Amino acid sequence: xxxxxxxxxxxxxxxxxxxxxxIPLAAMFILLLFNLVADPxxxxxxxxxxxxxxxxxxxxxxxxLDNGSELAILAIGMTLVTAASGGQDISVGAxxxxxxxxxxxxxxxxxxxxxxxxxPIFVAFIISCLVAMAFGxxxxxxxxxxxxxxxxxxxxxxxxxxxxxxxxxxxxxPIISEPKFGYYGGFIPGIxxxxxxxxxAAMVVIITLVLKFTNLGLYTQAVGINESSSRLNxxxxxxxxxxxxxxxxxxVAVAALIKVSRLSSINYSVIxxxxxxxxxxxxxxxxxxxxxxxxxxxxxIIGAFVIQMLTTTxxxxxxxxxxxxxxxxxxxxxxxxxxxxVVRDKMSQIIKKMNSRKGxx
Amino acid sequence: MANEALLSLRxxxxxxxxxMALMGVDFTLRKGEIHALMGENGAxxxxxxxxxxxxxxxxxxxxxxxGKEVSIRSPQDAQHLGISTVYQEITxxxxxxxxxxxxxxxxxxxxxxxxxxxxxxxxxxxxLDIPARATQQLGSCSIAVQQMVAIARAVDMDCKxxxxxxPTSSLxxxxxxxxxxxxxxxxxxxxGIIFVTHFLDQVYEVCDRITVLRDGKLVGEYEIKDLPxxxxxxxxxxxxLDDLSDIHTEENASHIDEKGEPLxxxxxxxxxxxxxxxxxxxxxxxxxxxxxxxxxxxSECVRAIxxxxxxVSGTVKKDGKTIKIQxxxxxxxxxxxxxxxxxxxxxxxxxxxxxxxxxLALQVMKGFFKPFTKxxxxxxxxxxxxxxxxxxxxxxxxxxxxxxGNQQKCILARWLLTHPDYxxxxxPTRGIDVGTxxxxxxxxxxxxxxxxxxxxxxxxxxxxxRTCSRLIVMRDRRVVGxxxxxxxxxxxxxxxxxxxxxxx
Lengths: 361, 504
Description:
The complex is a heterodimer. Chain A is an all-alpha fold. Helices cover 69% and strands 2% of the residues of chain A.
């Protein structure tokens, strides 16, 4: 009886090992465990008041929820692009600079220290969203119509994007004093949980609904796996690939709103720097093949928060920010090797062996 | 001497999780013989070959080469022992020269004597009568010559055992003959050749002996003269086979309404793939076919009908009304389905499940914003898995892990699910086992009797004679004739293809 029960448990583990979502969850678990052992203060959440006198929760976990949000939002778009085109968009950091700059330009006009905003924030966001989607469409056109490798195609915007962003505001740095603008990247008065987390949650809900009530998932995967056969089934691979880039553009605009709101200003060369790498890592850590095809959206989103957890953990142990990438690289290597199908197959084999040995005893 | 066993496998077992792929299989290859390894898909042919070439390790049994027991743990081991394999897909590098391909990965020296290498390659090519030069880029040779170069590479490595795994499936008749000539030449040199193929004709043309496998077990080893064709098929299937002769076209044509508007009609159709403008029609409940040599343009014709290639001229009518087909979705919306020639490249979506593959076409027709619910999708998939007896663990299994025949059935299910009025089947039986071939032919006739119009293309003429009531003959990308009724004989088709007599 107890053996039977045991077997069930190991069976469940065996299945879990094969499930894609296991990878980011396991990585998260290991990171949490490490923090628990090394310094439990990681889990401490305190209630305090920020400079505006609003109640806010703070602590490392809150930092992760807060800063992981942009990453999660980008991971949504990046997952779709990866699935359909079999490549990645490396220009999202630069595109965030463009979208953020557009947002400020729309709100401030030519006056860099405005007392009142020229238009509602929502309208300005729609404008910046359209601009970001247009740049996404540009990338998408290069990839889908002209069949340029995604990394090479987006290298163009990666290189030029930040200059374009600076040019939009005549290389000036507008500062917005309107406190409402700060809500998106900070806190809404009376709510102690950071707003970016709510925005990310909303995006997750939207993409979940889209995947449930449209065929976006099936079509992107089909195109990513076999373009020629998708076409013969009546799909338009060119359009679908292009569409994923446009969707990523919308994700970029949302991330840009949060980023700019945090500062109430912008720094063209630093804003969202290297975020594309973290977004791609989130997709990879989610166990999605970077060569395109099948994907698991939940896995990518959890992956994004794990990446942020890693960054925050490293900061907590006072790794200097210059050295951060090196440390991160080591951990990432471990994570990626651990999540490689070869290793996972081996592991589920080992589990099975243990299982049968137990059965024999 | 000729009967001396070169390679002998005894009691080979191979177990995969949940499947006994090979059970106590014996196999003997003699010096200087061509030995056919036959069996349906999933009978264990590929597994046996992979055990022999070190891709899989056997669980039980012994392998003896020239009387000595050997252990083969990797493809390198096999190569060192003189066991070479030439696969269906060319595994050479098309961007390197012929000589480079023959010598690549074989020298341990840093220094490479190019002149000597080219001379050696030329000598080998000449001695085997292969029409290629050492310095020619491999990609510029025809597929058949590339295959021969792969064989020459094996011969140059002093191979004693040469395994040819479906080498002829992408060759036309002439090229097959060249390959056979080469095989006979090697046979004369004492090389033992294992030949795996689905083409029965070829087995009887070139082989000395046949070993038949079924369900991972050895059925028997036979001299070619002791095993007539029909018996071979029944041994492979494991039952007496009247099925093949059952199928007849006599009744086939009777239910077709010869008068009235055709269901589908094309005039002066041509595409970017360089076919000459052609006229075509099909009536309700008719089965017709395009025949001709490989590359004569038969696939291009049906691709033009379906809008798979870009159509450059011509008008198309469905039920008497002019319609426009520019891309596949236009054709699908007009009730046309198309099962493409190349299952791997154009048919399956490998990583997706059987269920997703089956519903894909209907789903695309239904629209982006109207996905099927999970329950609907499962219902569709299960219905067709049952109807076509598709062998799969579940509807969630990735289609790429199914055998070729079952993959083809899934693609067939995909189109049947769209309930087309007109279904185009381009080589639906290529590379699949005899049992499934018969199933598909029967299904075609059944569908036609229910009123579906079907265009059927096959490289095997007898298959077309069995199913089609009208054949359109093609040569050099041009329609050269149409045969029906009493003209539907092998000879008549051949002579029309050859162009000796312009039958109209």
